[in-house]
Design a protein that fits this description.
Length: 317
């Protein structure tokens, strides 16, 4: 069997992680460098002139121009946290390096925090991933399909039309010969208008979309993209068609990765975030060594996401 290029890449080992980010000082230094690679810049006025001091162990800067004071976490997704940065770094490491998803309960055990805290950390970091992936645009050959996430109630319908599931559009950009490159998942209804709105946001006009016979996928033509429709008749036969290999493999892997990991209620309420996490990780699967540094950078430029926003499940821009 051929070695899988994704599975066998070295990644960042736990030993390397601890060497680099094992102490609070190391994490603080890494976060400062990530947020201000050219040196401190005042978030209020943009000036670089500053003085710094420590208060209760944490480093603060005071802008010499406007007198604004801030720490390295204020104005970022880490704002107001009472946890050491080492906990956040460990959470980021676990979320980016594990092959399968890490649920809040597992995070709780690894970090030694309560469930509520672990859940909030997990959702804040998923929110960082969502913001980062929000601008993803697919181009070239793109396979799309309809998919469903979440709890099945006994006796409920399955597949299209199920009342208990969150419908989402799954799309994967491939090379001309069908090798998967980038993915995009979007919770939304399957109407021509919704597909057209998705295409306007996440699809280049030069893309060629390959789909089954579901009528609404024709909505991609509204933005000028090409559309190749294959009427499959559904069922097992359609999952074997070569033109849908990338999307079927992707959805199969997604289903396996999510199965049993998450609570069904969270799943349906926060589908946008769980899907964004899967999308973020898939689109960086060849870069496991740098994925933590990139998530750190994304977290340092994402504005605070207070707990009330995280729990309300609204999309916070
Ligand atoms: Zn200033």
């Amino acid at each position: 069997m051929a070695m899988n290029r994704v599975q066998f890449q070295p990644g960042l080992s736990m030993a390397q992680f601890l060497d680099r980010y094992g102490s609070e000082d190391q994490c603080e230094t890494a976060l400062i460098a990530s947020r201000w690679p050219q040196g401190f810049v005042c978030p209020e006025c943009g000036s670089g002139e500053n003085s710094s001091f420590r208060r209760e162990g944490r480093l603060y800067w005071q802008c010499s121009a406007c007198r604004h004071q801030c720490s390295v976490i204020s104005g970022t997704v880490f704002e107001a946290t009472k946890l050491p940065l080492t906990r956040w770094f460990l959470a980021m490491h676990l979320l980016t390096q594990s092959k399968n998803n890490v649920a809040a309960l597992e995070l709780m055990r690894h970090l030694g925090v309560c469930y509520k805290t672990a859940w909030l950390i997990k959702h804040k970091l998923m929110e960082v991933m969502r913001v980062r992936e929000d601008a993803r645009v697919l181009d070239g050959r793109v396979e799309i399909d309809d998919a469903y996430l979440g709890g099945e109630l006994p006796g409920g319908k399955t597949g299209r039309g199920s009342e208990n599931k969150v419908p989402f559009l799954a799309a994967v950009q491939t090379t001309p010969d069908g090798q998967p490159q980038f993915a995009c998942f979007a919770p939304q209804p399957f109407t021509t208008e919704a597909v057209a709105a998705w295409a306007a946001k996440s699809l280049a006009t030069s893309a060629t979309v390959v789909s089954d016979g579901l009528w609404c996928f024709g909505g991609v033509k509204i933005i000028g993209a090409q559309h190749e429709r294959t009427v499959t008749g559904g069922g097992a036969a359609s999952t074997k068609l070569p033109q849908f290999k990338a999307i079927n493999t992707l959805l199969g892997n997604l289903k396996n990765a999510l199965a049993g990991t998450y609570h069904a209620f969270d799943f349906t309420k926060y589908a946008h975030r769980y899907l964004a996490e899967a999308q973020y990780r898939f689109n960086r699967r060849f870069n496991l060594t740098s994925i933590l540094a990139r998530l750190l950078r994304a977290a340092s430029v994402t504005s605070p996401r207070p707990a009330r926003f995280i729990r309300a499940a609204e999309v916070c821009r």
